Amino acid sequence: MFVDQVSVYVKAGDGGNGLVAYRREKYVPKGGPAGGDGGNGADIVFKVDEGLNTLMDFRYNRHFKGKRGENGMSKTQHGKNAAAYVIPVPPGTTVIDEDTEEVIADLTTHEQEAVIAKGGRGGRGNTRFASPRNPAPDMAENGEPGQERNIKVELKLIADVGLVGFPSVGKSTLLSVVSAAKPKVAAYHFTTIAPNLGVVDTGDQRSFVMADLPGLIEGASQGVGLGHQFLRHVERTRVIVHVIDMAGTEGRDPYEDYIKINEELAAYDKKLLTRPQIIAANKMDMPGSEENLAGFKENLGEEVLIYKISAVTKDGLRDLLFAVADKLEEIPKYEPEIEQADETVVYRYQKEEDPFHITRDPDGAYVLYGHRIETLFKMTDFQHDEAVQRFSRQLRGMGVDKALRERGAQDGDTVRLLDYEFDFIE
């Protein structure tokens, strides 16, 4: 089964907790703090494996969670960092954050890697908090929570040549006779419901990868028919072979077919019209095809490569394949995705995210939330009084006390942070 789009939840590993410990050695008075730091949590990493050509593995496992870092140990020993959780993906995989629609990674080459979710930092042990004023601190940090996100994983096949055209114009038949691929061929529309790949050997020591893409119909750019499932895979192709039923066996005009498909390509992405396009006038063995071809050329009125072929009788295929191979030699293997007008780098100021926000629940309690304050809370070990005092100082330094007063908080009011409640004290 071919799977080219799936939603996945990823959770990087949390950092290990720091340790509160002291040296207790014979003949060593006042040994001092000896708690080690926790190890870092595991990153979630996607790595390209050219042996894969589908996202089938994600169909049955849609939750990926990295390991937690090891806790700190006594004698100032650092906890072990968790190894990255490496997930193989096929070339052409695009990873998108579902919440922000941000493209996290675009993976195209073999063994290319991208960190999808960052593991949490290990908490610091009490050794790290020692100072002349407090030489034996009784506190340590918990590990930082690992990043978690819902992502959309899409596969855009990387093929040199893409066959486009209306349903039942002979794309699958063409691929089956020029390569060893065995796509499904039948006398009804949308026989091909997933792309098929085949390696084409031209016979003169040249070869390329050809993709038979699902049939396109009018309105596909808005999702009609197979819609975006088809158009997504055209983006990676270097040359487009436009297969047209020149015999008009289904009563359609070949020129109108050509115009409608190009309109759908332009509606999806205008860049597709800049790709080299070769027209394969198929079914030339059928009655009326020569007359239709003459009318097609007259209506076209421009210089476009047109090759007369018959996928059934294999007439004209050699010339078509040579033309495609020649065109591929003129195009770079990998085109840059980002074009820069000059070498000047412009840095734009980005407003820093507020460390906290305040709302009120119906019962009158004040609710604190925000990524920074929630992370700070999770990394605080409330079993030690010094850690609690440090957390209070950090909140005061962030301006939480002042903001609560401005919102009308009074002595004894309830303040909520995640699942915990505190009393506001003047």
Form type: elongated
CATH architecture of the largest domain: 3-Layer(aba) Sandwich
Q: What is the strand arrangement across the widest sheet? A: 10-11-9-12-13-14
Give the biggest sheet. 6 strands, mixed
Range of helix content: 10-25%
Subcellular location: Cytoplasm
Family: Belongs to the TRAFAC class OBG-HflX-like GTPase superfamily. OBG GTPase family.
GO molecular function: GTP binding; GTPase activity; magnesium ion binding
Protein name: GTPase Obg
Summarize the structure.
The chain has 426 residues and is α/β, with parallel strands linked by helices.
Name some characteristics of this structure.
single chain; 426 residues; alpha/beta; Spo0b-associated Gtp-binding Protein, Chain: A; Rossmann fold; GMP Synthetase, Chain A, domain 3; 3 domains; six-stranded mixed beta sheet; five-stranded mixed beta sheet; elongated; EC 3.6.5.-; metal-binding; magnesium; cytoplasm
